[in-house]
Amino acid sequence: MELIRAFHRAYQFLQMRGNVVALDIDPLAPVFQLANRSYIVPRLNSPDYITTLISICEQEQVNLIFPLIDPDVPILARHKEVIEATGARLAVVPVEAATITGDKWLTAEFFQSLELPTPRSWIPGYGDPSQSKYPLFIKPRDGSAGQFTFKIHNSSELAFFLDYVPNPIVQEYVDGPEITNDVICDFKGEVLSVVSRRRIEARSGEVAKGVTIYDRTITEACIKIAKALSAIGPITVQCLMKDGILYFTEVNARFGGGLPLGIAAGVDSPRWLLALAAGLPIEIPPVGTYKTGLYMTRFDDSFFLTEEDYARSSSRYL
User: If you average pLDDT over residues 157-174, what whole number do you get?
Assistant: First the structure.
């Protein structure tokens, strides 16, 4: 919701005319209450999804597309050519990078190839985590939003969760502050900014309270990661710090949920990307230039719909 508001503000600041178009499968999606245009679309795994997306792009004359959830990324990356044939520019990583970032095991191998510290990891058939020191941590290789993630304290729990968690990866448990890094690249893959924020509290996998920090080592590592992925647009790099050592854990190839904190700290990436896509001049400060020690605490908004509003929301075009 805050991201939609940020794009509205960007349009106003740049004095541009344009619309924010939102897509969802749920007529009660809150984003529909803020977008200029809204569409109900098939699920990502539907054979009709891409044809529907292309039709919307043509009808709305869409210029710029951002993935907002992890499952969006590989679908959009695989169909980039046909989507961009409509005239829309896709801010998404290449197919190879989407494969790496969408699989936590491949992500761990990717970090190792860059000589970046990452927690020791195991998957069924590759090593035995029971021989390692507890606690451990388990999650799905292709998971998202913090679902099916558990701390494991002993061998009994390990046996249970290996059966319970779908497509699991087990990692050594790193007990330290989690630092999320919003990395913004331009449409040629150049890194425009890296904003680091320490999570204070999370809810359903998304930051509820956080504070901006700056660490040169983290920033340099994030630039290295973005370049290795040939990233375009936003990616989110996650790491943990224990005893002064950074452990890189995940890359989400999309805007992070805590992006509004970076915007408030002076990195207005929606404005920058909108200006670049439109070919407008925009002054972008050097990487690492943002306000540190800025705290964020957030709460939920509520929207209220009448029966007529809901009926209108249930149509394909809103």
Answer: 96
